[in-house]
Amino acid sequence: MAWQWLLNGFSLMAAEGRPMHLEPWEVYFEKTASPVMEKMVEFHDFLLVMCIVISVFVMGLLTYVCLRFRQSSNPVASKTTHHTLLEIIWTSVPVLILLVIAIPSFRLLFYSGGSPDPDLTIKVVGHQWYWSYEYPDHGGFGYDSTMVEDKDLKPGQFRLLEVDHPIVVPVDRTVRVQLTAADVIHAFAVPAFGIKKDAMPGRLNETWFKADKLGTYYGQCSELCGVRHGFMPIKVQVVSEADFLKWVEGAKQGSYAAYGEQVIAAKPAEAPAPKAPVKAPVAAEQPAAKPAPAVRPAQETQPTPPAQPAETQQQAPASGQDKAE
To answer: What single-letter DSSP state applies at residue 193?
Structure first.
């Protein structure tokens, strides 16, 4: 619709399957990936329409007053000081507008701040200046996630957003996020999911999201936490249930393989790596070990032949004496 193009700043809408934050010259929200963010965008659009209507009305009223009651058109000013009906209107109309805004606002507030039954729990700990993630529902394994430096970026990766070990979650599953910090206050924010929650030392905060689209989503620390505050990115990869279980099995063994457009299971990727280095040294040692045993029997056989004649010489006279006797 035309108003959608207006809200998007006349920018091109993202094609299906493409993340909206990749669109050049984009001025609107990035593509939503959770029910919470969808409701936030709907509420934003509703408020924006109301703001436009009120602004147009006020500007029109001011324009009319300036033209109608200017000195040349109205040399004798009115001496009216009170108007009961007008005062009731300009008091009741703003109250009604606030009520219209408050009802959907409270609905969204209770929906986003609720605690639905989670399918998965992730504990997030903020550090200066990296994140730590734990999966208590899957054995309690955990790992650190740090930003990839500019010199280590690969083609297609985003500066200040890529991490070495992202969060991996299954699609269409409610994820409970428990937040705390080890040093100073941080903030865990992922715009596509509509979540932003402070991580505070000595306190456990909680939020949730339900990713309904496969893909990769980014966020950042949104609380000033020190000199490298801008270098604490968050990367979340939403995969299918089967791929998530494969990743969990590999992660329990210490392999936190990143998932791109084509999901690579952690266990098969690890299997060929140990085989190559193990076979190579064994094949190299066998030829070196064979000559040593071949030399040792040759040295041992040389003293043995002289020992045999000595024994026979001692036994020969003994046998001759027996015959003589």
So the answer is: G
> At 125, is the secondary structure helix, strand, or coil?
strand
54 part of a folded domain: yes
Structural contact between residues 131 and 124, judged by C-beta atoms closer than 8 angstroms: yes
Distance CA 219, CA 192 (A): 8
Helices vs strands, H then E, count in the chain? 8, 10
Domain count, the chain: 2
Q: What is the pLDDT of residues 150-174, one digit of tens each?
A: 999 999 888 999 999 999 999 999 9
pTM beyond 0.85, yes or no: no
Cross-strand pairs, 27: none
Sign of CA dihedral 287, 288, 291, 297: negative
Q: Are residues 219 and 253 in the same domain?
A: yes
CB 185 within 8 Å of CB 24: no
8 A C-beta contact, residue 247 and residue 168: yes
Q: Which domain holds residue 54?
A: 32-113
Q: Model confidence at 288, in pLDDT bands (50, 70, 90)? A: very low
The residues, any chain, with a CB within 8 Å of residue 110's CB and separated by 6 or more, are none
Task: Assess contact for 206 and 115: CB atoms under 8 A.
Answer: yes
> What distance in Å separates the CA atoms of residue 165 and residue 148, rounded to the nearest whole number?
10
Q: What is the mean pLDDT of residues 61-67?
A: 93
Domain boundary among 113, 144, 163: 113
Q: In which region does residue 228 sit, left (phi positive, over 0), alpha (psi from -120 to 50) or beta (all else)?
A: alpha
What CATH number has the domain bearing residue 106?
1.10.287.90
